[in-house]
Amino acid sequence: MLPKVELHLHLEGAAPPAFVRGLAAEKKMDISGIFDERGYYKYKDFWDFLKVYEAATATLQTPEDYRRLTRAVLEESAASGVIYSETFLSPDFCGGRDVGAWREYLHAIREAAEEAERQDGITLRGIVTPIRHFGPEKARETAICAAETAGDWIVGFGLAGDEKIGKPKDFAWSFDAAREAGLRLTCHAGEWGGPESVRDAIRDLEVERIGHGVRAIEDLALVDEIAERGVVLEVCPGSNVALGLYPSFRAHPVHKLRERGVTVTVSTDDPPFFHTTMEREYAELAGAFDWDDGVFQGIAMTSARAAFADAGTREKILKRLEKAYA
Ligand code: ADE
Ligand code: ZN
What we know:
By secondary structure, this protein is α/β, with parallel strands linked by helices. The chain has one domain: Metal-dependent hydrolases (TIM Barrel, Alpha-Beta Barrel). It has helices at 17-26, 46-57, 63-79, 99-120, 136-149, 172-180, 195-205, 220-229, 237-242, 254-259, 278-289, 293-305, 311-325; strands at 4-10, 82-89, 123-128, 154-157, 184-189, 209-212, 232-235, 263-266. It has an 8-stranded parallel beta sheet with strand order 1-2-3-4-5-6-7-8.
């Protein structure tokens, strides 16, 4: 199994359904409506997915819940060959944007990550991520949580949620605060918004990575600009197919983007929601585009170089990849 690097993973979105059902039972919460008859998450479209996501997240109420979640998620990632991962964390869900509470959640998440590093050899770092449809005011509070905890473990700042609501520049204050605190920047764009949404995120937020960004393909001048500037796309093909953005892996633009010189990486986004794993993403891409091990090794190395972790951590991950490929 090839060692892998994942840059785009939502921690709550990676919660196994059985884990969430367990938490709901402990708390006597009835969330049976978010599951189908086989026990998988059930949703109609992206906007319904966001509702189901938030309903599942409502079962996560304490730092201890997040500790258990982190351990469960990293076990799954490590089983797929992931050796380094970055996860989106939202103080909106972890302590209601209160800095003191957020620190407690973060402490529990980090402890679980350190245990996974010792036991499963997987390294995790965090990207603080406000939720776009919660609005720019809440994003400011989230940015303050991010700035207060920026350092060797919280290494980035992002923006997730409903891309149809508001504009990237509404969040410029938050991204400026995060940048000043030393955080590296990414933003979901070009998933439900078109190329202009990607252009706005690059221009107005000065991000170095884009979450998804795949709809840049609808404007080749933009694709060339992304390639030239070295903006990295966190591409999640299985997510895009599951949510109906593209009918199949073969119809997904990741191959074309790569051929045209864009730096693409591969991630799962919210794996159990989309019935995927990093193993499955690699297998589907290999089948759809005839990508061989060399392509995937290149993507893993590219992903390690684009990681927001400090140079020493990046170097260690690169060395592990080189050794595995030798
Ligand atoms: N939050 C979790 N998954 C997401 C996605 N694919 N797009 C936007 N926000 C999200
Ligand atoms: Zn995402």
